[in-house]
């Protein structure tokens, strides 16, 4: 399996850059979402300390895994399909990130805490 170090090294990003207008608003937005996700993902480790590392490296690993699954089919993807895959890799774990304010809201609500404990 390929082990890219940054977004620009992934096969999916390279193929995407070949099909999209370089530095276009669309391309820049996709990269901005990826970069924002990387920043948010740092908080996963703070909240879920027993989880494996869920940071930018994790997102790159997911993109590399997609490459392994797609193989030479990557070049046949449309720009929109590539964007969806990059966004999916970037955002798939963001539900594990929450703000201290959100956490405190549930800590202060005893019934919400009981409900959470029953469900999880």
Keywords:
elongated; 120 residues; mainly alpha
Helix content: 55-70%
Q: Would you report the number of β strands?
A: 0
Rg over CA atoms:
17 Å
Q: What is the overall shape? A: elongated
In round numbers, the mean pLDDT is 84
Quick recap of the structure?
The protein has helices at residues 11-19, 25-47, 56-70, 79-91, 100-107, 110-119.
Describe the protein's architecture and organization.
The chain has 120 residues and is an all-alpha fold. Helix content is 65%, strand content 0%. α1 (11-19) runs antiparallel to α4. The mean pLDDT is 84.
How do the strands and helices of this protein lay out in sequence?
Blueprint: H1 11-19, H2 25-47, H3 56-70, H4 79-91, H5 100-107, H6 110-119
Helix pairs in contact: 1-4, 2-4, 3-4
